[in-house]
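Troubleshooting: if your tokenizer reports a length mismatch, compare your output against this known-good record of 113 residues.
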Amino acid sequence: MHELSLAMNIIEIAAEEQHKAGSGTILSVELEVGTLSGVVIDALEFALEVSVKGTVLEHARIELHPIEAEASCNQCSHVFRVGDLFTSCPRCQSYDTRLVRGHELRFRSLTME
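Known-good structure output:
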């Protein structure tokens, strides 16, 4: 379950940001998780719930925002939603596409007191 190591990295990044800001209590963290990022959102939520105890995020509100995957066709430039990496363009049926959204795992915000 790589979501546990992701949770630990999220805690480390939050602690670093808290240190850079000169302490202060972290009130909330918002994360964006792409639907094709390889991260199982429920598993990450559980991993965070278990691993934040005794850390800078113990009392913080943590929100995960799914980002729907989108691809762009390299043939006709049409942008469309995808459910996997092997979806053809609905406009021209080309498989020559590239993922433009939905592969990310990033901080949207971190709020401190």
